[in-house]
Amino acid sequence: MNKVTKAVIPAAGFGTRFLPFTKAVPKEMLPIIDTPTIEYIVKEAIESGIKDILIIISEGKECIKTYFGKNGDLEQFLTEKGKTQEVSLLKRIPSDVRISYIYQKEQLGLGHAVLCAKEFIGNEPFALLLGDDLYVGEEEPVTKQLIQAFEKTNSTILGTLEVAKEDISKYGICSPKEKKMDRLVELNGVIEKPKAEEAPSNLAIGGRYVLTSTIFKYLQSQQRGAGGEIQLTDSIMRLMVEEKVYSLAVAGKRYDLGSKKGFLEATVDFALKREDLKPITEDILNNKKGL
Fold this sequence. Notes:
single chain; 9-stranded mixed sheet; two-stranded antiparallel ribbon; 11 helices
């Protein structure tokens, strides 16, 4: 069985929900305090054992490449000034991790974005991490939880979370084969954004996957679906004819960075976890009570 050593992070979207900021700067570079959101996604992959990462970008998002690249002039300047702590901030990605990039020339949906990674992945299984979903794993990173499940099943794994009835229509919803709801369950289907009364469960796909390379066979022939886009969910449904597909209820806190509410919540929570910012943040929050 192949080990999962590669990850794909789609980052080519326009980020229209964060306009006007995203007119000039990718939404993936929106900082949670002082760290771009995409760095948290990259670190989750690395902490899950991934050594080879492909970030899918579009024109105008070159600053993502700049951010993860080496800045010799800045490093030399800080070194000469004796700013060793600041120099360490420039070296947060381990030297044995390779980050590559490919351009998605058309915005044709998540399935099309994943298809752009075909040559990079080859015949290996791989992790897929969506940038709109930021997770803090309870004991282990969420992607690592999925990789461990893959090692048991040697099959595609969809990371899921339970959602409220009123939110079901916002997600791809899993249809388990059995009524017994263990964390890891085999699926007989996935329904994209069903009505709550028609949904087979409340298990929503939450932006984390481990996929076998067989998915590319179906993505290559996938017709456009909802929104005129190539939907990854549609290809996963077709994949189920050939291979088993499982869902894993992940253990961790999820932040929806595609919404302003989720982004603000993440900013506050991360500030409260930092020793240098916790007292300041608590003071601000306490002063706002009752307003």
